[in-house]
Specification:
This protein is α/β, with parallel strands linked by helices. Helices cover about 45% and strands about 20% of the residues.
Length: about 625
């Protein structure tokens, strides 16, 4: 057991953060902590790690617990370099190696038969055993493997930390934690700055991680892949579920149904008891039994109605008319931005039919959001055609909700768009997205990102368009809101085209994935899992090494070689063939390490990195031998 909490309560002034929380974190197990924004997840984590106090209860930490925590400020030294920060993860190993060198120097000057020699030898063996236990002789391979997996393959290891972006610093901080291999790995929202490739690699790496893992995340797909226990912090209480996120959803639904039945049964019992008390309390013959039932009522612990246990948004997208079958036709479109017409992507072809649900994906900066703005004629297109079908009406969800007026009150943002709708109906619609009471009179600029997102979704519901264009609609939503949006989009019988990095959403809603690249768009007839499988197959085929490639012939020849003996000539020839082969092998291995099928797999990356290191080492040995023989021959 690493951490145990029993009946722990925490509050700030009169505000309860959580109460009577009990949990256990065991060695080698994987836990996810979820809850709405502001539920107190980070506070609970601080309490569990002994970084914050609490009001009552007990928290136990294993003596000497080695917990590695992803800090929000990355914890990296800005004046350091990438490789220096990575090597800090092995400070203990490097110190042990330095100690071994010192012992070696002392042994050289010590009598081999003395007690001091035996003491030094024992100390040397202990240091060596420690290095072996930490796999210390593969430090460079480990660093290269993790840096490649975390997206630093093209970055110089000597790059200063101060020159890295915020996202790169977060990825580097995760890389250092992975190299440190703490017995408890704690990750607070680790997926925020990771692309699909890095996420896939990290999930694969964590699947073989030997220590315990504790993750706070809103990334449902990541939770599905990395945890086998889910804690939910809701309404100040903690609930525990066995399994990953999908298992949590099933169990929560089952608990809800069971709790609702128990609540209704108890309400019926309460009503029956109260009715008996009301009818029989005044009668002398039955007052005793009435008082007995009254006592039962007074001592009864009344169950909470699960229907009102937590506020959830309610979404429903409708359309007022149907479009023709052909909704959108994009042909040879070029997406360019700015006065200088900077081209982001070109040759985009896409045909969208009525009722289809299509997800747009692609690398950051490829122009996905600009593609939406281009087809909506918000920004001009300089090549290609965009044709909307007849009877199409389009609602557009802008990623940062910049199409909302920051100075307007939330209620006016709705009312000015729909002046014919009565105030009561508008208030009801705002209430469905959890904007109530004084919240509706706040200016858009002061409400939270999640509230702005829900306000934008409210507008789309009222527009009742038959085509929805949604740019990263889950970015500012909590888990419950994401689940509701997913359900509403799945049930909508209109057309949906959306951009998203939410892989759980990409698995549940679309029937097509469209990947935008620099030179066009590739359509995959399936969800995200289908896309991933097809992509791996394609990349593997492209990266398959040429098995019958001819070894390059060497041309090291000189007149002086004729004077060397036959054995030396033969060895030089052998070395040249070996060098040529190893150079080609290193080239192939480097190409394979750059292939997604390899770098998205921790096992393959490790295997190929080890092979490359061994090949390079052997190549250096052969080159040194060849150089020596050649010099002898030249002499």
């Amino acid at each position: 057991m690493l951490i145990s909490a029993h009946e722990v309560t925490k509050s700030f002034a009169d505000n309860i953060v959580f109460e009577r929380v009990s949990l256990t974190i065991e060695e080698g197990c994987r836990y996810g902590l979820i809850g709405v924004n502001g539920a107190g997840k980070s506070t609970l984590l601080s309490v569990l790690l002994g970084e914050a106090d609490y009001d009552s209860g007990e928290v136990y930490l294993k003596s000497g617990l080695n917990a590695g925590v992803l800090k929000q400020n990355s914890g990296l030294e800005r004046d350091s370099t990438i490789i220096a920060e990575m090597r800090k993860a092995f400070d203990d190993v490097i110190a042990a190696e330095d100690a071994m060198r010192e012992i070696e120097a002392k042994l050289a000057d010590t009598d081999a038969k003395s007690d001091e020699y035996r003491r030094l030898t024992a100390a040397y063996s202990a240091k060596q055993a420690y290095i072996d236990s930490r796999d210390g002789y593969n430090i460079d391979v480990k660093i290269k493997t993790v840096l490649t997996g975390m997206g630093f393959a093209d970055k110089s290891e000597d790059s200063p930390i101060m020159q890295l972006s915020g996202g790169e610093k977060t990825r580097l901080a995760i890389a250092r934690l992975l190299l440190e291999e703490p017995e408890l790995l704690v990750l607070d929202e680790p997926t925020n700055h990771l692309d699909f490739k890095t996420l896939n690699w990290l999930e694969d790496y964590l699947s073989t991680y030997k220590g315990a893992i504790f993750v706070i995340s809103h990334d449902r797909y990541f939770l599905d892949k990395t945890v086998d226990n889910v804690f939910e912090l809701s309404r100040h209480r903690l609930s525990s579920y066995k399994g990953n996120y999908s298992a949590y959803l099933r169990q929560k639904a089952e608990r809800y149904e069971r709790s609702l039945k128990e609540y209704k049964a108890q309400q019926e019992e309460i009503a029956a008891l109260q009715m008996y008390v009301d009818k029989n309390m005044a009668r002398a013959s039955t007052s005793a039994s009435a008082k007995s039932r009254l006592k039962i009522l007074e001592n009864m612990e009344v169950l909470e109605n699960p229907e009102f246990s937590e506020r959830h948004i309610k979404l429903r997208f409708e359309k007022t008319k149907d479009p023709y079958k052909d909704v959108l036709s994009v042909k040879e479109l070029t997406v360019a931005v700015g006065a200088e017409k900077k081209e982001l992507c070109s040759g985009i072809n896409l045909e969208v039919k009525r009722g289809e649900k299509i997800a747009i994906i692609g690398d950051n900066g490829i122009g996905k959001s600009s593609f939406f703005k281009t087809v909506l004629d918000i920004i001009p297109h300089y090549a290609g055609t965009v044709e909307w079908g007849k009877n199409t009406t389009v609602s557009y969800y802008e990623q940062e909700n910049l199409n909302l007026d920051p100075e307007k009150q939330a209620i006016d943002e709705i009312w000015d768009r729909f002046p014919h709708i009565p105030e009561a109906q508008i208030r009801k619609m705002l209430g469905s997205v959890l904007l109530t009471r004084e919240e509706v009179f706040k200016p858009v600029k002061v409400i939270s990102g999640g509230e702005r997102a829900r306000l934008a979704l409210c507008i789309i519901m009222l527009e009742k368009s038959n085509v929805l264009l949604l740019d990263e609609p889950t970015n500012h939503l909590d888990l419950n809101s994401k689940e509701e949006l997913e359900r509403a989009l799945s049930e909508f019988d209109g057309t949906v085209i959306f951009i998203s990095h939410d892989r759980y959403l990409l698995n549940k809603v679309p029937d097509k994935i469209v990947e935008i690249t620099r030179n066009g768009a590739v359509v995959y007839d399936g969800n995200y899992e289908y896309y991933k499988e097809r992509l791996i197959q394609t990349r593997a085929a492209e990266a398959k090494p040429r098995t019958e490639k001819k070894k390059a012939e060497t041309t090291y020849r000189s007149r002086e070689m004729r004077r060397a003996d036959v054995q030396r000539k033969q060895r030089i020839k052998e070395l040249e063939n070996e060098i040529s082969y190893l150079e080609e092998l290193c080239h192939v291995l480097e190409q394979e390490l750059a292939c997604e099928e390899v770098y998205s797999s921790f096992e393959l990356t490790t295997e190929k990195s080890l092979q490359l290191e061994e090949a390079n080492k052997k190549l250096e040995e052969y080159l040194a031998e060849w150089e020596t023989l050649s010099e002898e021959q030249d002499g």
